[in-house]
Write a structure and sequence with these properties.
There is one protein chain. This protein has six helices and 13 strands. The chain is α+β, with helices and mostly antiparallel strands and 254 residues long. Helix content is 38%, strand content 27%. The strands form three sheets. The chain has a five-stranded antiparallel beta sheet, covered by helices on one side. The chain has a five-stranded antiparallel beta sheet with strand order 6-7-8-9-10, with helices on one face. It has a three-stranded antiparallel beta sheet with strand order 1-4-5, with no helix packed on it. It is globular.
Length: 254
């Protein structure tokens, strides 16, 4: 049995590590992901299941936190709107969140694995998982399936003892730390807007309207992006989604 080490000098500290339990669970997570991938591929080849795709997400790393924004449209076969209220910004733990784009089933499975890892990390150590640790674990999982890649792109960001940070991961497990980033079919439009309008360094309060305008710009040009938008703020107080009333303040009436 592994030794569980608990200490509370700092809720964002990374000391007092015991990795054996986490490594065993990680091995099980990889096994589950491979099984899910094989099932999806078999049914997909038989034509009985069509993957759902399409999105625009953006992330901005600020002085005091991270801003995530996304649309809510999910398309099937690139043209059919499968869902109008798809959830694309997901909590990994109280201080880390991620955006998903690409194949929904693959993305949801990976997020579930990361949520499991974050809970295990806190159980073993009595502290929250650092943001970079979450990105590293996602990278390991994606790299392990590189012979049959998961069709997803992630942004992982949050707040820990080192402050706010944002990481972008590709389907093969490569990742980099960014000040701002985008993913999904409408990201070229959204990133073009951010390149032109975003002035860094920036506070979360100033970044929110910029992120929203980037998503709204993508909605105007990308058919797989649309319906509505969501915004999440991740800072020293944790993860918080903007309410409909808060979002309405940033959108001018047509």
């Amino acid at each position: 049995m592994p030794t569980l080490v608990f200490q509370q000098p700092d809720r964002f500290s990374g000391k007092g590590l015991s990795l054996s339990l986490s490594l065993r669970i990680r091995s099980k997570v990889l096994e589950v992901l491979r099984d899910l991938e094989n099932i999806t591929k078999r049914f997909g080849k038989a034509g009985s299941v069509s993957p759902v795709w399409g999105t625009t997400t953006v992330g901005i790393s600020c002085r005091d936190g991270v801003i995530f924004a996304s649309d809510t449209r999910v398309v099937q076969g690139y043209y059919f709107i499968a869902h109008k209220r798809g959830k694309k910004i997901l909590k990994i733990d109280d201080y880390i969140a991620a955006t998903i784009s690409g194949g929904v089933a693959d993305a949801q499975a990976l997020i579930a694995a990361l949520q499991w890892e974050a809970r295990t990390y806190k159980l073993e150590r009595g502290i929250n998982m650092p943001v970079k640790a979450a990105a590293n674990i996602a990278s390991i999982i994606l790299s392990s399936t590189r012979m049959a890649p998961l069709y997803i792109q992630l942004m992982i960001g949050g707040y820990d003892r080192d402050g706010a940070s944002l990481y972008v991961l590709d389907p093969l497990g490569g990742f980099s730390k960014e000040v701002f980033a985008g993913s999904g079919s409408g990201s070229p439009v959204a990133l073009g807007y951010l390149e032109a309008e975003l002035k860094t360094p920036i506070d979360t309060s100033s970044a929110i309207p910029t992120a929203i305008k980037a998503i709204l710009a993508a909605m105007q040009r990308d058919t797989a992006t649309g319906n509505d938008f969501e915004v999440m703020v991740v800072d020293s107080k944790g993860c918080r989604e903007l309410s409909p009333e808060e979002k309405a303040r940033y959108v001018k009436p047509a």
